[in-house]
Amino acid sequence: MQGHLFIQPASLRELRAPNSQSQVALYPIYGINQGFYDPAIPKAYFESPPVQLDRSEPGSDALRFHYLTLIRNGTLAHQRLRQAEREKGAAENARDAQKRQVQDLNQQNIGLQAKVDELEAKAKKLRAWQEREPAIVHYLGIVNALAEYNHLFGIPDKVLT
User: Cα dist. 45→25, 26, 54, 89 in Å?
Assistant: First the structure.
């Protein structure tokens, strides 16, 4: 705000302080350099925070208002920060729980996929046996006829084993 000079307003601004019914006259403050604040406010107030801001000195109301506003805003910001940190912690805990759940589900998925692969291999073997079943039944039918033939011609059963 270089080059900005303080211009005396036609009337001082009046505000109500929080939890107060009385109105407070405020002096404008645009910066801490000479010419950026009301001349009624002593320069010492800007060099270091005043030890005491009593109502007897001119401009103390404006600084008291600014200090109190800074304190209120700082307190509220601190409360919001703590609340945000608590929410962040809760969100991180929920994220970690979901991550563990996803890992468990992935492990179950891997186990189930292995079972599916095993069952598919067994189903393939079963299909192969089912395709050969007519030939097996045919040859088993021949065994009975062969046993009767051997019995008719007197071939002992022990020869077959």
Answer: 18, 15, 12, 42
Reported as a single tens digit per residue, the pLDDT across 48-84 is 655 565 666 666 677 777 778 888 888 999 999 999 9
Instruction: Return the C-alpha torsion angle 52, 53, 58, 62, nearest 10.
Output: 150
CA distance 56 to 13: 19
Higher pLDDT, 11 or 108: 108
Read off φ and ψ for residue 15, nearest 5 degrees. -130, 160
Mean pLDDT of all residues in 96-120? 97
Q: What six digits make up the tokens of 69?
A: 């506003």
Segments of the chain assigned E as strands = 13-16, 23-26
